[in-house]
UniProtKB/TrEMBL annotation:
SUPFAM superfamilies: S-adenosyl-L-methionine-dependent methyltransferases. Signal peptide: none annotated. CDD domains: AdoMet_MTases. Keywords: Methyltransferase, S-adenosyl-L-methionine, Transferase. Gene3D superfamilies: Vaccinia Virus protein VP39. This is O-methyltransferase. PROSITE patterns: SAM_OMT_I. GO terms for biological process: methylation.
Length: 212
């Protein structure tokens, strides 16, 4: 029988890959505008996935102030382009500040303001290596459908907040958001089109590779 991870071990794993001043500044801006970015551990996992995929084209749903975007860009190819979608144009402006401070060339980021479900249909089928979903949790199922269309064979879709503050694992929690995320996990796990994994970093990262 395995030993459950302790809070100390979770904290240790989250802090193993340290964030620099640029990411810390982006986190400070996120707090100012009420955005909750991915944790350092989740960010490190995203960079790892982008690097393993040698990602050239990535879609991010939920720009925030650029925390997750910068982690992704640092894992992508030097010529890779991040397409980031957010309903808040002000958040995207702050994210651009983050990317500029990190020395990311402007041509490597395509920021598109608007609702994800309005923007995603305009993106190219089968073109992307990775799709990160960190927008409206009630739209996660729709994001999955869109991601399967957008990803190339072997591409990866990732959902943040897959554990939703420890609520998903508790069957007694039946609020709409928790149920939506729980149902998404079951759908991904049961899909014959995907190879899934649930990583207990941050608030949970649900990742799945598209087969064929």
């Amino acid at each position: 029988m395995t030993t459950p991870i302790t809070a100390a071990s979770w904290t240790y794993s989250e802090e193993l890959v340290a964030e620099d001043e640029v990411l810390l500044g982006a986190r400070a801006r996120a707090e100012e505008v009420g955005v909750v970015p991915v944790s350092p551990g989740a960010g490190a996992a995203l960079r790892f996935l982008a690097a393993v995929l040698d990602a050239r084209a990535v879609v991010e749903i939920g720009t925030g102030t650029g925390v997750s975007g910068l982690w992704l860009l640092r894992g992508m190819r030097a010529d890779g382009v991040l397409t980031s979608v957010d309903v808040e144009a002000e958040h995207q402006r702050l994210a651009k500040e983050t990317f500029a401070e990190a020395g990311i060339p402007s041509q490597r980021v395509r920021a598109i303001p608007g609702a994800a479900l309005d923007v995603l249909p305009r993106l190219t089928d089968g073109h992307y290596d990775l799709v990160l979903c960190d927008g409206d949790k009630l739209e996660y199922a729709a994001y999955l459908t869109a991601a399967l269309r957008l990803l190339r064979p072997g591409g990866v879709v990732v959902f943040d907040n897959a554990l939703w503050h420890d609520r998903v694992a508790d069957p007694a929690k039946r609020d709409e958001t928790t149920v939506a995320i729980r149902d998404l996990g079951r759908e991904v796990a049961a899909s014959e089109e995907l190879v899934p994994v649930l990583l207990p970093v941050g608030d949970g990262l649900l990742a799945a590779k598209k087969i064929g």
